[in-house]
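Example record used in the benchmark description.
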Amino acid sequence: MLFACHNEFGFLGACMAKDWWRGAVIYQIYPRSFMDSNGDGIGDLPGITGTLGHVAGLGVDAIWISPFFRSPMKDFGYDVSDYRAVDPIFGTLADFDALLARAHGLGLRIIIDQVLSHTSDQHAWFAASRASRDNPQADWYVWADPQPDGTPPNNWLSVFGGSAWQWDSRRRQYYLHSFLAEQPDLNFHCPAVQEALLGEVKFWCERGVDGFRFDACNHQFHDAQLRDNPPASGGEVSTVRADNPYAMQQHLHDKSQPENLLFLEKLRRLLDGGGAVALGEVGDEDAPPVMARYTERDKRLHLAYSFSLLTSEHSARHLRTQVEALDSALARTDGWGCWAVSNHDVPRVASRWNAAGSADTRRDRLWLALLLSLRGSASVYQGEELGLPEAEVPFELLQDPYGRAFWPEFKGRDGCRTPMPWRADQPHGGFTDGLPWLPVSEAHLALAIDQQAGDPRSMLHYSRALLHWRRTQPLLRTGGMRFFDAPEPLLWFERREGDKALQAVFNLSDAPATLQLDAPLVPLSGSPFGGAGLDGRMLTLPPYGVFMGEPPHAA
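Model output (structure tokens):
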């Protein structure tokens, strides 16, 4: 039931069904690469609108659209120069309104990306701030004097490599940038900054969005004393590659500061009044407790996005350790997580978790089934439903500044950002009539949507079947979770709520595996899983096999 509500921020909004987001499946769209409607080679909002039928047909609950706001595109939209304007390459506000209306008509909720921790250096706020040290917006960004020898104020590092400080000759000071130098960090210690950002979020609430994915939301405050970070001890799980110097520090002072909790509470009050949900990106070396604090029930974010499964490690032991760590932390605050195995920043899971090196749809199906079986919500990245592997992009065609900086050990993020393949028989996979901003992978054409749509053996057919079947399994959306001991390469856990329970077993290897169950189970009806054999309590799984069953009395 929808009803009008309002709060201290003075606007009306539609209040959604309270907890729709718990256990929801969110489909991530990278707009540059989804569908181009005007032939300029860049995907856009009308392109998304025209292809929403595909997304709705998958059986997902919501769409997360990566940034489409006005931007000089130094970091492809994560450097915002105007929070309230659609960049012309993506369309207009009217195009967004049309997209929103179409999505709602199809039963899909819309989550938009908001980057509050920093702006573009082309934002009007930064232009005003850097003009002088005594203007009304002088302290809207993090400025600091050099040390006596001219070096930066402290040892903080940028995620993209090198110092996090950039010299500005106009102010004769350094400014902080946790990412690119063209992405200066906002000063959240300034109350006016917080109020201005809440106003930007309110604008989109009033426009009718259903939620926000807040990028780098634990980067919103810094240590006001600008204390040096200590060196990494070796026990941390870094959020970046080992060849990035950012991994050589414990980031105690440049992010995840306690003051951020109070800002998130302000943000939550605003969102509750607008009927919108907050999904926070929390990248931290010790993420579970931070995520637990950030999602403490009804106080701050609704759910937090986990990086734990976006690494190269994927043994059963590792997966269990990561899931148990987050689940245990969230239990203490009644918080909620959101899992992902692919996104726009990491190599696609079909390649990243592929020790064999060859394509295998069975393995791709396993990873999707696992993602959709964990306690928490799930984010599915565009193309994951097709089993797309990482694309090879030659250096001369790279667009990602991160990749150009760390080539060749790290080839950047372009390999997971190449355009969606819609039709194998059309130029550029039907993505555009022009020259695409990144090349369409030849390997992706055989996996194009038109090639898979009518094939009951395809990954797309399986993805649709799995997502729709999951909607019939409430335990997979909100049930509690506990693991059972099982030898590698098996992963075995239970989802339970009250007296109802199901068990899931995953064979993570390319060889058959057996498991002695504690008690007999009956396969869940209607599931897309096949190939498992049951002889009493002895379960046999084929390579990359999945089994889900329930006690006989519940069947």
